[in-house]
Amino acid sequence: MLVPIFTLKLNHKINPRMVTIGKFDGVHPCLTAATQAGKVFIHNPHARGQRPAAHRLSHSTQDSDISLLNINQAVTCLTAGKLGPNTTGDTLLVGSQTNLLAYDVHDNADVFYREVSDGANTIVLGKLGDIRSPLAIIGGNCALQGFDYAGADHFWTVTGDNVRSLVLFDFTGDGKNELLVGSEDFDIRVFKEDELVSEMTENETVTSLCHMHGSRFGYALANGTVGVYDRNARYWRIKSKNHAMSIHAFDLNADGVVELITGWSNGKIDARSDRTGEVIFKDNLSSSVAGVVEGDYRLDGQTQLICTSIEGEVRGYLPAGKDLKGNLMDSSAEQDLIRELSHRRQNLLLELRNYEENAKVHLLIGVGVIPANTQLQTALSVRPATEAQKAHVELSISTPNETIIRAVLIFAEGIFEGESHVVHPSVQNLSGCARVPIVPPKDIPVDLHIKAFVGGKTSTQFHVFEITRQLPRFSMYDVNFDSSADPPTGSVTFSISERPQRVVMWLNQNFLLPEGVESPDVTFNSLRGGGLLSVSMASNGQVDEFHSVHQKLTAAMADHSNYIRNMLVQAEDARLMCDMTTTKKRYRELYDLNRDLVNEYKIRSNNHNALLACLKSVNLAIQRAGRLRVGKPKNQVISACRDAIKSNNVNSLFRIMRAGTASS
């Protein structure tokens, strides 16, 4: 529980997400924020009467506690912290679309002023990886750049899209900080210096990131979603109709575990459990929240949570003391209990009313009863663009009998606006099948959570069927059966240690393939860009593969043979003891084992025949290589080829066939 302990009204509007606290003289925390007209204000109530020197810093005519820093261009980001090794206090860093300024507020002097060609959308200050000195890292247009105290560029790398949020913390648990980057392509990327080590995909622009504790961090999206990750695993998330303007980690109940504090566009401030997302505190400012920070602003040894609004309102909070906390918690607990009981009462009354109406309907006309074999069936298919409709994936939802589907509700992350879609056919168009066009914006797998209202043609009440269907990652690619199409101009070739059947299995899991595709050689049309994607596979090292399969099958058959001997002994023991139940059970198991052995023998036989065919083709190739020579060189080539096969040296075999010798 938090209690407000001070409120300030500053006569300056504050830009959203541009608020920080810095101890610029090494002692007194100062609230610092970007304001309009290319200025940054520094609120320092601890040093009244001290007039700043003349350089960039000037005194506000409206408030004696505020100094103004003139940037002379629109501020896009700012932060404060320890940058230099020998500085008195924190350094203020201010970014714009063209420059980065590092400013010593205490001495009223520039530390450095650097041009940044990719802009500075967001900034974070701290140590990264093995780089010794702290860095001011800015995220701009698809680029990340880090500067030390002297303005030297010690870090640079690229990322997928415009960077919107940054945070530094030990993500991997190796004792060194990694850089987490949130961008406009919906991805959260983790960099160990310039190496990408992890990636998480969300469904909107990642606007804010904050470290909580350990490997856990909070995030906020442009669509009003906030949540918590622990490394790559998402713990929870919630979505609001308002936008999350700022998130911050703060321990409000003194239990040693921080909560996620969120400031919203409607002025609401709430604190949520890092484990469940449950709201444990909330308050309201009179206008949209601009930023949430923390610091000992009263210099009493206690760290306050400080929330600011875009209109210049500042409110400080402290965790409630033990006495006050008891009263507040008792009152809050009573209110929560009353609210919960009232909500439960309404739900029970509504449920009772539904039971009564169902009973009346069933007694009078029997409406609402559906056949026992009713089930929900789904199918996904790719639909190319037509004159009437653009390219899409069609989700077909149907029932196997005369029942009708009255409505369909689909929840899917990142596909529909608001993450849900409702299909509600008119009464004239009711049937047992509903078709929903889906256009995934990106190549990511998505779970479709489907709820359908199913009933009879004259039903007034319906049964709710629920089913989950996964949309494959590359569902917006249609198979191209036109063999005359020109192949793609670009290509990449690589080796994998998988059989063609495994590749076909992967294709079926990640694409919407028609039935009967059993070859990994497939060409697709991209329904988004219209280009071609061609996949082809040439098998190498078949002899080794068949040998490996042969050994595995032989070992499996040996295990089954031993198992059969044990089973026969157990079956005969049970028969002699007149335990017919166990006897039947053991002979049923023997029957199943025998069937498996027969199937394995067939597989082994086919594998053996394929192995012989491969060996024959290898031997034929060696004979042909020998026929290219005469006399003694012919015998030498054949002998050298067979030695290369014995030593399993494929590269040497190719060289001998080509040049007649193993030396390159």
TrEMBL record:
Organism of derivation: Scophthalmus maximus (Turbot)
BBS2 hairpin domain segment(s): 542-627
InterPro entries with a match to the protein in the record: Bardet-Biedl_syndrome_2_prot, BBS2_CtH_dom, BBS2_GAE_dom, BBS2_hp_dom, BBS2_Mid, BBS2_N, WD40_repeat_dom_sf
Cytoplasm found in the keyword field: yes
Domain Ciliary BBSome complex subunit 2 middle region intervals: 165-272
Name of the featured protein: BBSome complex member BBS2
GO-annotated biological processes: non-motile cilium assembly
PANTHER family reported for this sequence: BARDET-BIEDL SYNDROME 2 PROTEIN (PTHR32465:SF0)
GO annotations of cellular component type: BBSome; ciliary basal body; membrane; motile cilium; neuron projection
Domain annotation BBS2 C-terminal helix bundle: ranges: 632-658
Entry keyword set: Cell projection, Cilium, Cytoplasm, Cytoskeleton
Ciliary BBSome complex subunit 2 N-terminal domain span: 20-126
Gene name of this polypeptide: bbs2
Domain of life assignment: Eukaryota
SUPFAM superfamilies the UniProt entry points to: WD40 repeat-like (SSF50978)
Localization in the cell: Cell projection, Cilium; Cytoplasm, Cytoskeleton
Start and end residues of each BBS2 GAE domain: 389-474
